[in-house]
Amino acid sequence: MAFLNKEIRDGDNQDLTEERRTATFDTDKMAEVIYGSEKLARRRREISHAVSRIPELADSRPLPFLDRFEKVTEGTRKLSVLDRHLAELIDVNDNGEALHLYHEVMGMEGHPLALHEVMFVPALIGQASDEQYEKWLGRAKRREIIGCYAQTELGHGSNLRKLETTATYTPSTQEFILHTPTITALKWWPGALGKSSNYAVVVADLIIKDKSYGPHPFIVQLRDEKTHQPLPGITVGDIGPKMAFNGGDNGYLGFDNFRIPRENLLNRHSRVEADGTYVRPPHAKIGHSAMIRVRSHMATGQGWLLGHALTIAIRYSAVRIQGFLEDKSHEVKVLDYQTQQHRLFPAIARAYAFIFCGFETIRLYDQLILDMNSNGNTSGMADLHALTSGLKSVVTHFVGQGIEQARMACGGHGYSMASYISEIYGVAIGGCTYEGENMVMLLQLARYLVKSVELVKSGKANQLGPMVAYLAVADHKVNLATGPDSYVKMFQYISKRQSWKATEKFLKFMENGDSRDVAWNKTAVELTRASRLHTRLYIMETFIRRVESVTDIPVKSALTDLLNLHLNYELLDVASYALEDGFMSSNQMDFIKNQLYSSLEKIRPNAVSLVDSFQFSDMQLRSVLGRRDGHVYQNLFDWAKSSPLNKTDVLPSVTQYLKPMMEKAKL
Ligand SMILES: CC(C)(COP(=O)(O)OP(=O)(O)OC[C@H]1O[C@@H](n2cnc3c(N)ncnc32)[C@H](O)[C@@H]1OP(=O)(O)O)[C@@H](O)C(=O)NCCC(=O)NCCSC(=O)/C=C/CCCCCCCCCCCCC(=O)O
Ligand SMILES: Cc1cc2nc3c(=O)[nH]c(=O)nc-3n(C[C@H](O)[C@H](O)[C@H](O)COP(=O)(O)OP(=O)(O)OC[C@H]3O[C@@H](n4cnc5c(N)ncnc54)[C@H](O)[C@@H]3O)c2cc1C
Questions:
Q1: What distance in Å separates the CA atoms of residue 352 and residue 276, rounded to the nearest whole number?
Q2: Where in the cell (predicted)?
Q3: What phi-psi label fits residue 435: left (phi over 0), alpha (psi between -120 and 50 degrees) or beta?
């Protein structure tokens, strides 16, 4: 059954319209699955529509033509316009609506409030006591103050135990003295720190009576609330241009014996009494909750970034006509090539899969905060830390790969900033680094896996959590023809074997006399492999669960095709692990490959609608190639004509330098 696709409009590119007519599901219904609710999917459309009626919210020029200064100014200008319209555009208490509004209006370039909402306010929510809530949270939420999260230093980002910024408690004045003892102790990288924020949650080593208690979060005023000048004792500025986020002011920050009151240690979980007595938190890493939050949200955020790039690439592939198949009198859409489908469709499946498992980690994070704040229960923290460490690493890596494939799938025009794909790529791959460098975080999950295998080895398999229970079983022979479960079992086997092999290897090094750290380092590559497999298994399982729970039959059927593609693609990608011990046969390999190719064919008629279902407006897409109406060529020409270089036919640099060179050559 074909659905009246709401994206079809008169005057659209006919090739795209043809694609939309073949859809077997309703894109509004699919959007409900992608955004988690009918309400949010609908509100996104309404918000986009409302934004389009406010001319001041439009980009003043295409963003790729702006220089850094203009990008920062443009972002800040739009924020001030938004501020006037906020209440009419969104329910300000609805995070999903706010997130969509910012993506729509601000683009990807970054803006002064980027870290305020994502880390500053959440750090207060997770770490501030009731009195501190009272003092700071309302002001922050009303945006009387703008904050950021200042943890990373010039010399240390991954190894938090070695952060050098000190917060030394002075009982006589009941103050902490914040100090930057060396150049490497400068805070470096925090988003929105350089020029926009007047407050920060600063993570510093707490020192009481010459004893270090490790990194703790403090709320610190950086700038005068009236003049916005840095306060005496504060050195703050912008760190310069980056691969992306160039509308944002990632910054540096130094303290020269800067004093803050005792109440500014965020003290919901640990505190310092007036006399300098330290009260420990219920969990040593509880101060890291703002990081766990961002990591928990990253899978959905990254899935949407991948969806953004794929919307551009798939739509363009349906309007790009080049080369022949059977009929040599008509060129075909490049989307008809199997290689193009293989490049793009598995990435669509991954985008959906990442979004679905992200919903699960967001739910787990919300539960953790509820438990911690209501009764100090931190029992979910270790599991969530392990899970999100692996997930952010695997997802950001694959999203980077997927976006890069999307760029290549657009041929030469993909390389132009008119496609906007390079901007999306720059933003997405930042995620491989921020919130914990990917290798470092994979090794965090590996600690958890090794401990789990050790539990099994010592006869305590009953203590394993549900996510790792397969490490104690999972060696069934599998007939792949029997549905998603058999793929899960196969993947469990592969993942279990890798976790065990890596653990055995690590233990062997220790038996042979290496210290734990040296043995760990000698096994690190194998350990990261185990973490990736475990995480991919989790993603696969959540994808299956989500598809099973969908009630709209046409949507479920289209998702099932995507799921089947995902299962076959994933298994094929890791087949070497199963082939090396003969667990998988070459017949099974062939079976998987054929399943994969037939999934590509099944998905083909729905490809455009699967990306239309992300329902990115043209404003949010910011891509000439990805336009909903498919009118690519005239708009590419118009876009090029708007280049500042084309303001004059002869550039001053040509007159000044090139012409004299050419003239000289003539002599
Ligand atoms: C974890 C480390 C690497 C190591 O820590 P260390 O102290 O050395 O600990 P270990 O000795 O290795 O381990 C000791 C045990 O502690 C356990 N552990 C460690 N951390 C945790 C934790 N957080 N929770 C629970 N348990 C933890 C560990 O497993 C050990 O246990 P065991 O002994 O094995 O049992 C640590 O140093 C670290 O975390 N390093 C990384 C540093 C980092 O991540 N920095 C981030 C800085 S902030 C930043 O980067 C910000 C970026 C902003 C980007 C903004 C972009 C926004 C887009 C995002 C999308 C989000 C949308 C949100 C939308 C919305 O608002 O809704
Ligand atoms: C876009 C962006 C935004 C950011 N925003 C913020 C922010 O708002 N606030 C903030 O505080 N910070 C922010 N950061 C900083 C970011 O969190 C850190 O850069 C990140 O945590 C990585 O730390 P690092 O730079 O010290 O990397 P390094 O640890 O120096 O990594 C370099 C290499 O060393 C390897 N390595 C390091 N340690 C180990 C280990 N133990 N085992 C194996 N390999 C290891 C890594 O794998 C990597 O290959 C941001 C960074 C970026 C790029």
A1: 51
A2: Peroxisome
A3: left
155 close to ligand 2 (CB < 6 Angstrom): no
CB 298 less than 6 A from any atom of ligand 1: yes
**244 Cα: distance to centroid of ligand 1 (angstroms):** 23
371 in a structural domain: yes
User: What sections of 274-432 are H helices per DSSP?
Assistant: 289-319, 338-375, 381-409, 411-415, 421-430
Provide the Cα torsion 71, 140, 301, 613; round to 10°: -90
- The predicted-structure confidence for 264-304, as pLDDT tens digits, reads as follows 999 999 999 999 999 999 888 988 988 999 999 999 999 99
pLDDT band at 189 (very low <50, low <70, confident <90, very high): very high
Point out the catalytic residue in the list 32, 97, 435, 570: 435
Residue 492 lies in a domain: yes
CA distances from 344 to 338, 391, 393, 428 (A): 10, 21, 21, 17
Q: Read off the DSSP letter of residue 286.
A: G
State the pLDDT confidence band at 184, using cuts at 50, 70 and 90. very high
How many domains does the chain contain in total?
Answer: 3
Confidence of residue 476 (pLDDT cuts 50, 70, 90): low
Select from 119, 238, 432, 433 the residue to mutate for testing ligand 2; criterion: most ligand atoms less than 8 Å from CB: 433
Position in ligand 2 atom list of the atom nearest CA 151: 11
Alpha-carbon distance of 103 to 82, in angstroms, equals 12
Can you read off the two tokens belonging to residue 327? 């009929």
Q: Is the pTM of this model over 0.90?
A: yes
For residues 345 and 398, state if they share a domain.
yes
Domain that holds residue 557: 290-460+488-611
Alpha helices (runs of H) in 63-110, residue ranges in sequence order:
68-89, 95-106
What value does the mean pLDDT take over residues 548-562? 98
Cβ of 239 less than 6 Å from ligand 2:
no
**How many whole angstroms from 496 Cα to the centroid of ligand 1?**
25
**pLDDT attached to residue 256:** 98
Residue 546 is assigned to a structural domain of this protein: yes
Give the separation between CA 63 and CA 59, rounded to whole angstroms: 7
Does residue 653 lie within any of the structural domains? no
435 assigned to active site = yes
d(C-alpha 361, C-alpha 346), whole Å: 22
- Condensed to tens digits (0 to 9), the pLDDT of residues 444-475 reads 999 999 999 999 999 999 999 999 999 998 67
